[in-house]
Amino acid sequence: MDWSKVKSILIYMFVALNIVLFVNIIIASGSNRVSRAILSNTAAILEAKGAVLECKIPDNAGEAGVPEYKDSKADLSVIIKLLIPDAVVEGGGDESSSAVPPVISPDGNAKVTFINGSGFLYESTGNEREAGRPLSPGDLEKAVRQLFKKAGIPVSDFITDFAGVYEGRNTSFIRLVKKYRTVLLFDARIEAEADEEGIVKLRFNDREIQRFTDLKPIIPAYQILLKYFAVEGAVIKGIDFGYKMYKIDPEAQGYDVPVWRIATDAGNARYFRAYSGEEMAEADVEADVEAGTDADAGADNGMKVNLSADADIDAYADAGTNAME
Q: In the predicted model, is pLDDT for residue 43 greater than 80?
């Protein structure tokens, strides 16, 4: 037997097998991604229609599941004491109620209301403060992160999502959202507003993902863009994939669904259900306005968006609007 020929045949067979496996891997992975040609054509169509695309179009085209959450481990008592050192329970509490009563400062100038057991809303309700130059968004974010660090609550997975200045109220604000792997949890976030004296409003809501269930195919982002944004004057500043609370009825218990968030101008955003491509009604995303900073209603509140005046906020362009990359 010619062992040299056998050896050559085995080598060729091994190489051929690896080529087949490599091709299969390419095919399998390619099914979860939109081709560059499609994304390039989408950008060209948007431009031809008069739309302005200021970000990359995500190429995700795979499946997404429904998240199941577990109780947050965050101990809020420490941060409440940092915000209101001499906090007292409003009304003395009610043992017959399962709801956690709000806490207030002895002078009544500050109040903390608890949200769903894993979050809170702090508000300074004192007399009107003198107008001055507010903290910059960058300084505000540093102060907020330092506050949570001091309270022992990890927030390193919360990324800069939005920041700006309210000219009418003479305050600055920031919004940080939680990033889980490659997706954003739009309702797990930190929002803060501050004037020159410090934080006047702070909202924190956390969610801990346990697992995903019920995987289903999602509509790629480019299809959303072609259906809703291929019009004259449309401005697309950012595209993110994540999860947001959805309620069939305002009184019903909500659940998180996968969504595409399309950021437009002045901090406004539109949400589209990733399974169907349908836009979520304003009532479904009302929490954005109620969250404390009114960021999505900024155009009507004298808001001046400031994304480049502070170096710390420049991360918005990379971390906030293109978190899928």
A: yes
Contacts of 109 (CB under 8 A, 6+ apart): 124, 125, 126, 127
Nearest alpha carbon to residue 291 among 134, 144, 115: 115
Question: Are the C-beta atoms of residues 318 and 52 closer than 8 Å to each other?
Answer: no
Output DSSP code: residue 300. Answer: G
Q: What is the pLDDT of residues 212-252, one digit of tens each?
A: 999 999 999 999 999 999 999 999 999 999 999 987 776 77
pTM of the full structure: 0.75
- HEC string of 108-127 equals CCEEEEEECCCEEEEEECCC
Q: What is the pLDDT of residue 140?
A: 95
Output the CA–CA distances (angstroms, integers) from residue 132 to 115, 126, 281, 300, 306, in the order listed. 31, 17, 38, 22, 18
Letter for the amino acid at 26? I
User: Encoding tokens for residue 315?
Assistant: 């991360």
**Cα gap 167→164, rounded to integer Å:** 9
Rounded Cα distance, 73 and 132, in Å: 38
Is the Cβ–Cβ distance between 141 and 174 less than 8 Å? yes
Per-residue pLDDT, 285: 56
